[in-house]
Amino acid sequence: MTPRIYVLLLAVWIVSSLSGLAQEPAASSAPDPRALLAQSLAAAGATNVREFTASGTITYYWAGELVQGAATLRGRGADQFRLDADLPGGTRSFALSHRTGKRKDADGKLAEIPVQNASAGSIPAIPYPSIAAALADPAVEFTYLGLEDAGGRQFYRIRVSPNIPAESDPRGIMKQLSWIDYLVDTRTYLVAKTADLTHPKETITESYLHEIELEEYTAMGGVAVPTIIREKVGGQTTWELHLSTVVFNPNLSDADFALQ
Fold this sequence. Notes:
The chain is of the alpha+beta class and 260 residues long.
């Protein structure tokens, strides 16, 4: 082969290789987590939902015993939630308000909820008010954690956490206590689950996965509502709610979340 032909063939090979590279699809970038949560609100028809009241029935799973009763729920903004359950032994109440909380047992005894379990800033029920509040807060960080498969379906996992300056939280403890993950169905864009951490009353160094499963979405008042809400701690079901009614934006106040 003459040098001239060799150079010509080499030039053709280089051009062909570059053309092939140009035709390869570019690597897809990760989706915008903030946009995904905004799309979730829109898909549910919940863009303007800031608070709610709801009612239904609840079943508690206590040491292998099932205890059932009527339940009333209230949720407002990013961090206010109340659950009152009328059980055979009396009313059991649980309330969170501005990252503090109380629990009232059927015997009327009040107990403080440890700060490490009241700091996640999430509503353990209908998720729309907390999502809307996070989207409106410039100090909140959104992180896309990837796709997850479960039951033949795929979900976007999105972490929402406060942007706490290092000088205010040098060890990152408050940020670790305050994140919440939303799992959004890739087909419907509805939230199928939320996840955060819960801790024993005595310590923050030990933690358990705390999940809220949201199922059987039904249109109520023009909004897609999960009619089955299930709490799990460490993979074990602690209670399950079946909602029958819901009212959005009923003009709640701080007093609605105060236990005395």
